[in-house]
């Protein structure tokens, strides 16, 4: 038609970029797969380690998927979304982050193959959603009920979670700590690992010297060397206040004309503190943990009363002490009563290293907060133990909360894949292809487990399919012996919540990525210095 220009209409500012259609989808999928490939070789008990060199040149060596992803400096928005999959997995169940990320990458890789064949993303999305629903149904049918009294099974679950973290020699001891600790802090069906477990790392000694303390360990010392170092059957005050005279906040002045008046004034100040200490002592208290300061006069009076005192205790530590000792955090010692006191079997200041002392509060009856003391020869070793025990604690907590497990070793993934393929054959249309693609993605988990163990994945997957086809749905990979075995007999199991959450998170991430067909990136503004400002000062001057 006459008068119409064939030149493109530009609606974006200069410097903006735009990818659309298949280019946008391909680039997004490539970014997601890159993140998955970064952690793929760490999966399983035979997974490899990654060396992470931080900007300050500190080095972290680990095969923990969550740690690797947290440390990576990722820029691509879709790659960041995949990292969020791992973060969600870690927040919800505490383990399975690597599985979730790999599964998301495989779902997108298989979706790309279907799109190359002409299958529309919307069809793939619907197929994936249906496959996810069916996968959850399969897991529900496979789930095995477990009691919190079954300590043997709980220990095996903790060991499975810690396997591959470099602490195999000590995993029996560490798994006992995880089980004992999780059971101790369980309350009303909930196990709050984040808020009720305090980790203390003390260099020196063996990993086997690590232990659980039914109480709280404070990285502090008693206030006064004249105070007792050790108190048994201790009654404890948790003071949310101060035992020192506060400075005046106004411009008031006190005029003292002679030495006698000065002495009288000081005695009056001392009397205030002595009254507070006497009030504490009258309740029978023998230990004081104070959130704020304790002055030298109060310190002297406490020592005379043979009371052990620690000051500058943090808010978090006060809450943990309250949970462990059963004490009440009080603000004014003058209104305190005996019922407000906490109790511990022992409070003691101990020398843990040549120049290091700590205060141990232990032997607390019905402690709902605990301390885990990690020992090791190096900081790197203790960091690995902490990461391993964090996984162990959280999987045991997940089992205690849900009461259900599934076999490990890739058994659930093989069963899901087999059942999905059978289900796909009953579907009509192209959704069948998407369900098959979902099955292949899920089955990639045992395949990668085999590859990372140096085994032949094809032969083992075929053998597993045969076992599951005949109803032996507990069979998985024995990466130690290089074959297949009933994983429950081997003692390898996982909380069912880890598997359901991994599938849910991975599917949701894949769906979000597949729905994007246009990426518009704004031009990044350069931070130019204001007049008189150094070019290295990236903070713009605001007048």
In short:
The protein is of the alpha+beta class and 543 residues long.
Query: CATH-wise, what's the superfamily of the largest domain?
Result: GroEL-like equatorial domain
Helix content bin: 40-55%
Q: What is the CATH T-level topology of the largest domain? A: GROEL, domain 1
How many beta-strand runs? 19
Number of helices: 17
Rg calc: 30 Å
Main beta-sheet strand count, sense and barrel state: 7 strands, mixed
State the name of the first-level CATH class of the largest domain: Mainly Alpha
Report the end-to-end length measured between terminal Cα atoms: 56 Å
What is the 3D shape?
Answer: elongated
Please state the structural category.
alpha+beta
Report mean pLDDT, rounded to a whole number: 85
Return the domain count: 3
* Percent of sequence in beta strands: 15-25%
Keywords:
single chain, 543 residues, alpha+beta, GROEL, domain 1, GROEL, domain 2, GroEL, seven-stranded mixed beta sheet, 17% strand, elongated
């Amino acid at each position: 038609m006459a008068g119409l220009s064939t030149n493109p209409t530009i609606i974006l500012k200069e410097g903006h970029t735009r990818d659309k259609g298949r280019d946008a989808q391909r680039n997004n999928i490539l970014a997601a797969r890159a993140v998955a490939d970064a952690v793929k070789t760490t999966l399983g008990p035979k997974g490899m380690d990654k060396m992470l060199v931080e900007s300050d040149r500190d080095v972290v060596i680990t095969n923990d998927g969550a740690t690797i992803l947290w440390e990576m400096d990722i820029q691509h928005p879709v790659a960041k979304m995949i990292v969020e999959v791992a973060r969600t997995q870690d927040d919800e169940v505490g383990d399975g982050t690597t599985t979730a990320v790999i599964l998301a990458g495989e779902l997108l890789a298989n979706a790309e193959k279907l799109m190359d064949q002409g299958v529309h993303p919307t069809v793939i999305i619907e197929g994936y959603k249906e496959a996810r629903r069916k996968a959850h149904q399969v897991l529900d049918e496979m789930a095995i009920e477990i009691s919190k009294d079954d300590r043997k099974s709980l220990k095996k679950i903790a060991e499975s979670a810690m396997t591959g973290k470099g602490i195999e020699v000590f995993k029996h001891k560490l798994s006992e700590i995880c089980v004992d600790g999780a059971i101790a802090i369980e309350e009303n069906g909930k196990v709050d690992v984040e808020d009720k477990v305090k980790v203390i790392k003390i260099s020196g000694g063996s990993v086997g010297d690590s232990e659980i303390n039914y109480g709280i360990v404070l990285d502090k010392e008693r206030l006064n060397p004249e105070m007792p170092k050790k108190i048994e059957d201790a009654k404890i005050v948790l003071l949310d206040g101060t035992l020192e005279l506060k400075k005046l906040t106004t411009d008031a002045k006190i005029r003292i004309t002679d030495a006698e008046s000065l002495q009288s004034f000081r005695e009056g100040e001392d009397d205030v503190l002595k009254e507070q200490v006497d009030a504490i002592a009258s309740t029978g208290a023998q230990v004081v943990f104070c959130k704020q300061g304790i002055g030298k006069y109060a310190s002297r009076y406490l020592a005379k009363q043979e009371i052990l005192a620690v000051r500058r205790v943090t808010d978090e530590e006060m809450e943990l002490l309250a949970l462990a000792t059963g004490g009440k955090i009080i603000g004014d010692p003058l209104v305190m009563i005996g019922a407000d006191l906490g109790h511990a079997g022992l409070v003691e200041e101990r020398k843990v290293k040549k120049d290091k002392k700590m205060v141990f509060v232990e032997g607390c009856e019905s402690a709902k907060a605990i301390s885990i003391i990690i020992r090791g020869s190096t900081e790197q070793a203790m960091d690995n133990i902490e990461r391993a025990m964090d996984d162990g604690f959280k999987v045991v907590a997940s089992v205690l909360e849900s009461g259900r497990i599934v076999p490990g070793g890739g058994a659930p993934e093989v069963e899901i894949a087999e059942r999905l393929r059978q289900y796909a054959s009953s579907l009509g249309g192209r959704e069948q292809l998407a369900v098959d693609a979902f099955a292949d993605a899920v089955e990639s988990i045992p395949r990668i487990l085999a590859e990372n163990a140096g085994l032949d994945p094809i032969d083992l997957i075929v053998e597993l399919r045969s076992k599951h086809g005949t109803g032996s749905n507990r069979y998985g990979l024995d990466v130690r012996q290089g074959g297949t075995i009933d994983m429950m007999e081997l003692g390898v199991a996982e909380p069912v919540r880890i598997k359901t959450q991994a599938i849910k998170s991975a599917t949701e991430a894949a769906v979000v990525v597949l729905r994007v067909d246009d990426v518009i990136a704004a031009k990044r503004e350069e931070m130019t210095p204001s007049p008189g400002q150094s070019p290295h000062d990236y903070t713009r001057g605001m007048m």
